[in-house]
Amino acid sequence: MELKNIKAFGTAAAEAPLKEMTIQRRAVMPHDIEIEILYCGICHSDLHTARNDWGGTIYPAVPGHEIIGKVTKTGAEVTKLKVGDYAGVGCLVDSCRTCDSCKHDLEQYCLTGSTGTYNGKEKYLGTQTFGGYSEKIVVDEHFVLKVPSNLDLAATAPLLCAGITTWSPLRHWKVGKGSKVAVVGLGGLGHMAIKLAKALGAEVTLFSRTPGKEKDALQLGADAVVISTDTAQMKSVKGKFDLIIDTVPNVHDVNPYVATLSINGTLVLVGYLGKLEPLLNTVPMILGRKAVAGSLIGGIAETQEMLDFCGEHNITSDIELINMQDINEAYERMIKSDVRYRFVVDMASLKP
Ligand code: NAP
Ligand code: ZN
Q1: Using 50, 70 and 90 to split pLDDT, how confident is the model at 281?
Q2: Which residues contact 138 (CB under 8 A, 6 or more apart)?
Q3: pLDDT higher than threshold 80 for residue 352
Q4: What is the CATH number of domain 3-161+316-350?
Q5: Residue nearest atom 20 in ligand 1 by C-alpha distance
Q6: Between vectors from CA 267 to CA 261 and to CA 268, what angle results, nearest 5°?
Q7: Which string of DSSP letters, residue by residue, matches 182-219?
Q8: Ligand 1 pocket check for 191: Cβ under 6 Å
Q9: Highest CATH level, class, for 163-294
Q10: Please, what is the angle between helix 162-172 and helix 188-199, to 10°?
């Protein structure tokens, strides 16, 4: 198969900074769309992968799964988009399409394993997949999203991961008018969770451990802010929430948040991957029919639904646009929770 050399930004080892490199993309197949990448959001998962926080990173690694670009080529069978259209790509570029999950538009839970936009297995080349910190990407049309025409392109990029990851649990747990929703952590996912829950009609509370983010949270649409390190403030919301979306990337004590769930309430973890410490106490769960759950991004149809909803409601991410060369500094700021509220790379900076 014909391969194309593509300029990208990635890392050769967990301890190494990201730098410019050359990767290879497959030629456009009949169902493929080639996209010139204009903007790519920076997700905390990019950092986890670059630094091998979860183990299993294949190097060189080129992260980036909040991609917005312009279609530059289409395969003969493509019907979804045409050359010149704007296109989005999120966290998935392939799945089996035949298993029960895929048939029910839940490609993210593909029973044979979906293909991540980066650090997945390139179906045709057998190499790792390379993400959006690059000039171009080639993706099967099924996994390419249509971008609402009224939204700012750079600020739309984070919807492809931060948006769908928070939208999916809001929809699954049927959040609407009258729902009481809380969000833990005001970062990329957290700020989208606030905006989307509010637009769905919920009353929204932010749990943050960072005093100083209160004003921003209210501006983003939160009705209240609870500083999670303040015991009195935590007590004041005991038994209140129908749904809590916990976006914290690191191990943390979930029990104080379970106490703030209503009877039948659910706390859904979307951030931290691993064993909980301290252990989860089942007593309040059993006595209040409360649940602790998890959720992974969202399927392609649901991602399109979210993008269309954002188009209708004029919702985008609050972003800080950076050059590709500033990525290492952006990662350091993300670790310090110093993101207001998503970094997006202007991919024009990768060109000479
Ligand atoms: P982010 O922008 O860095 O935001 C995380 C926020 O969590 C921070 O701003 C901070 O908010 C809070 N936080 C950080 N460390 C904390 C700690 N030790 N204890 C308590 N709170 C802490 O990250 P993100 O891009 O939103 O991603 C969040 C997590 O979701 C990452 O682990 C990422 O890998 C994961 N993720 C999961 C999925 C999925 O499908 N499930 C998809 C995308 C990302 P405050 O300052 O307000 O406390
Ligand atoms: Zn992500």
Answers
A1: very high
A2: 25, 26, 27, 28, 29, 32, 33, 34, 35
A3: no
A4: 3.90.180.10
A5: 248
A6: 165
A7: EEE--SHHHHHHHHHHHHTT-EEEEEES-TT-HHHHHH
A8: no
A9: alpha beta
A10: 40
DSSP state of 280: P
| Residue among 43, 245, 335 whose CB has most ligand 1 atoms within 8 A, to mutate | 43
Residue 292, pLDDT score: 98
| 24 CA from centroid of ligand 2 (Å) | 23
CB 205 within 8 A of CB 222: yes
Q: How far apart are the first and last CA of the chain?
A: 28
Average pLDDT taken over every residue of the chain: 97
Whether 2 shows a pLDDT value over 90: the answer reads no
Structure tokens at 16: 């190494």
The H-or-E segment that residue 117 falls in is none
Q: How far is CA 140 from CA 80, 81, 117, 153, in A?
A: 10, 11, 11, 21
Could you state, in order of their start, the residue ranges of all structural domains in the chain? 3-161+316-350, 163-294
Is the pTM of the predicted complex or chain greater than 0.70? yes
Angle 315-319-321 from CA coordinates, rounded to 5°:
135
pLDDT tens track for 72-129 = 999 999 999 999 999 999 999 999 999 999 999 999 999 999 999 999 999 999 999 9
pLDDT band at 210 (very low <50, low <70, confident <90, very high): confident
Among 92, 38, 87, 94, smallest CA distance to 65 is for 92
Count Cβ atoms below 10 Å from residue 275 Cβ, excluding itself: 8
119-166: per-residue pLDDT in tens?
999 999 999 999 999 999 999 999 999 999 999 999 999 999 999 999
**Ligand 1 near 299 CB (within 6 A):** no
Q: 189 CB less than 6 Å from ligand 1? A: yes
| Ligand 1 site, residue 163, Cβ cutoff 6 A | no
What is the tally of helices (H) and strands (E) in the chain? 11, 17
